[in-house]
Amino acid sequence: MLYYLHTLPWAALWVLPPYALARGLWLWRKRPAVRVLREVLLAALALYGGWLAWLVFTPDALLPDAWQRLATGYGINWVPFYTIRRFLAVGGWYFVQVNLVGNVLMFVPLGLCPPLLWRRWRPFWKVLLLAAGVPLCIEAAQLFIGRSVDVDDWILNFAGILLGYALCRLGQLAPPVRRLMAEKAARSKIETKSVYKKGNK
């Protein structure tokens, strides 16, 4: 996993300054109630998105063009669990850590953060669509930038997003988190009633 994390500080240098500027301007214009934990999670999600894009969309000119690869199958694996079995059999711990564990863990935040930040992302079917769609789009894009395309990457990324969602749901069962969510829901109802009353005056 450290193989991936060493690029995180560089991603922070080009992601966080523009995000902080854009978010600060939005907060200054809208004047919402600022919740520190929410702002930290949003900043972390922005950093994660930039870091992930850097990792998965960096071109590799060593592979031939997309149409030639589709015709020959070069750098493409369509067989589920073929790469996973190969790494488990002969890869060694380092390659298992980078290629298998890393491909799961680096997608966990994508299943964890949206349900925590936005109520509309809490239904399981929405996260299921996210888990299927995002890795699929990444693999499709990698075909055109010279990166390897592997159905096992999709499987591992899919599992990582669902693992993140499972951690989110387990965390919501903890009493302190449940109390916090109940207080947030109560505040939301009060704010909605206040806006409704103002609109009827």
Task: Provide the descriptors you would attach to this structure in a database record.
79% helix, 2 domains, 201 residues, 9 helices, mainly alpha
State the strand order across the main sheet.
1-2
* Low-confidence regions: none
Number of domains: 2
Provide the succession of SSEs.
HHHHEHHHEHH
C-alpha geometry: globular
Name the helicity range. over 70%
End-to-end C-alpha gap: 57 Å
Largest sheet: 2 strands, parallel
Number of strands: 2
Strand content: under 5%
Oligomeric state, counting identical vs distinct chains: single chain
Structural class by sheet pairing and helices = mainly alpha
Mean pLDDT: 85
Number of helices: 9
The radius of gyration is 21 Å
Tell me what you see in this structure.
- With 201 residues, the protein is an all-alpha fold.
- The chain folds into two domains: 1-58, no CATH class; 62-193, no CATH class.
- 79% of the residues lie in helices and 2% in strands.
- It has helices spanning 2-5, 8-30, 36-57, 66-72, 82-105, 108-117, 124-143, 151-173, 175-200; strands spanning 76-77, 149-150.
- Strands 1-2 form a two-stranded parallel sheet.
- The longest helix has 26 residues, at 175-200.
- The mean pLDDT is 85.
